[in-house]
Design a protein that fits this description.
Shape: elongated
Number of strands: 5
Distance between the termini: 31 Å
Strand content: 15-25%
Radius of gyration: 16 Å
């Protein structure tokens, strides 16, 4: 297991699950204190074995041994958003592109695309991803592509 400070520095002292800051000086026993999540992210155990990420103790405990859920921003207007963890896992393994959400306006789609790229730059920094927005059926499709 890696040193908590090393993992914290690498992850910019942000929880990989909720994307909120983690106080490096907080007690490791506090709910919002730092902990290292050494669980597997992927069903493909060989692909992500050994990945350790910084998490709040409460986020890490809540996740337990189940697949993590990384929520979309509550300020976004997206319809049928795809699960972020599963989508990133598929794109990392297979490449290509996936429709990840529908938005009622181009502005909503632009905002969601910017948020998603920013969030994924911390969630999966090793993966090069881009977004594309296409009109379709009176709405705008947000597409995530592995570069």
């Amino acid at each position: 297991m890696s040193d908590l400070n090393d993992v914290g520095e690498r992850d910019g002292w942000r929880c990989w699950l909720c994307d909120e800051p983690v106080d490096p000086d907080a007690s490791v026993n506090a709910d919002r204190g730092p902990s290292v999540d050494s669980g597997l992210v992927s069903k493909d155990k060989k692909a992500k074995a050994g990945v350790e990420r910084l998490a709040h103790r409460s986020c890490n405990t809540r996740k337990g041994k189940i697949a993590p859920v990384v929520p979309w921003g509550s300020e976004l207007f997206v319809v049928d958003p795809a699960p972020i963890v599963a989508t990133v896992d598929r794109l990392a393994r297979k490449g290509g592109q996936e429709v990840v959400a529908r938005c009622p306006s181009k502005d909503d789609a632009d905002q969601a695309a910017d948020w998603l790229i920013d969030r994924l730059s911390r969630f999966a920094p090793e993966l090069s991803l881009t977004t594309k927005i296409e009109p379709g059926g009176g709405q705008f499709l947000l597409i995530l592509r592995a570069a």
